[in-house]
Design goal:
Blueprint lengths: L5 E14 L3 E8 L3 E7 L18 E7 L5 E10 L3 H4 L1 H17 L7 H15 L4 H15 L21 E4 L4 E3 L1 H4 L5 E4 L1 H12 L2 H4 L6 H19 L4 H10 L6
Parallel strand pairs: 3-5
Antiparallel strand pairs: 1-2, 1-4, 2-3, 4-5, 6-7, 6-8
The structure holds zinc ion.
Length: about 260
């Protein structure tokens, strides 16, 4: 095979779908090329040596050959397996959500090494069994930022006045917070407590190591999660598959 037609990438497996008789379409997010849809030939055969390296959520090194329609995975070597992301049901749900948002917000070949790091770090934290809530909110806010949808949480999106320490409003359609004057009675704007605003600001501006140790009161955790969920759904303009599964699992209450 011609050497120029081969390239090496470090990637994270986001999605897999059966293709033809024995093949799979594998969606990955790679460090070098961003999101790619690749063909893995023969991986559904029991004898395939590549199959185990291409499990969902695996961090993998790939050798890829340029194809006419789809590029083809010729070699796969797993770097990190993240077993807990497949064995622990709740963590599997979170990993699906991370993969679905990354796939949903990133266009093909729109490469961004920070997105790659964010997904990888989030998977590592989940796999280690760290508390899921801060991992997930940190991921959501930073993915939104990297995708160009950072919610405005410091000034009113309408009048641009700095937000004061009071109950403000949040409007998904306007992309952020509104002061009481602009937000009250506005269609689609919901109340945003001072505590929830503060938590989201911390998650946007501080390191994960700092955010991880914040003590989040239950009611504020619920509020922040609901706001981000609505904002993400609005931006994606379609329903999420992974949240149906997660909501069912979480109905037992993940806040303890
Ligand atoms: Zn305003």
């Amino acid at each position: 095979m011609n050497r120029e037609r081969l390239y090496k990438i470090n990637a994270i497996v986001l999605k897999r779908a059966d293709f033809g008789e024995a093949d799979r379409l594998v969606t990955v997010y790679s460090l070098e090329e961003g999101k790619l849809r690749l063909l893995a030939k023969g991986v559904r055969k029991p004898t395939s040596r590549k199959a185990g390296h291409l499990e969902l959520f695996t961090h993998v090194k790939l050798l890829v050959a340029k194809g006419k329609e789809l590029d083809i995975i010729t070699q796969a070597e797993a770097l990190e397996y993240f077993p807990n992301l497949r064995e622990d049901l709740l963590r599997t749900g979170y990993a699906h959500y991370i993969a679905e948002l990354t796939d949903g917000f990133m266009a093909e070949q729109d490469k961004n090494p920070q997105v790659y790091s964010l997904v990888l770090e989030s998977f590592r934290r989940l796999d280690k069994g760290q508390e899921a809530w801060p991992i997930m909110r940190f991921f959501e806010l930073h993915l939104l930022t990297l995708a160009g949808y950072r919610p405005e949480l410091f000034v009113c999106v309408k009048c641009r006045e700095p937000l004061k320490a009071s109950v403000n409003y949040f409007s998904v359609a306007d992309g952020g917070a509104l002061c009481p004057r602009c937000g009250e009675g506005k269609d689609g704007a919901t109340a945003l407590s001072q505590g929830a605003l503060k938590i989201m600001r911390f998650f946007l501006t501080r390191d994960y190591e700092y955010c991880q140790h914040l003590r989040i009161p239950h009611n504020l955790g619920v509020e922040v999660e609901a706001i981000l969920r609505r904002y993400i759904l609005y931006r994606l303009e379609r329903p999420l598959k992974s949240t149906r599964f997660l909501d069912k699992l979480e109905s037992g209450g993940i806040y303890g």
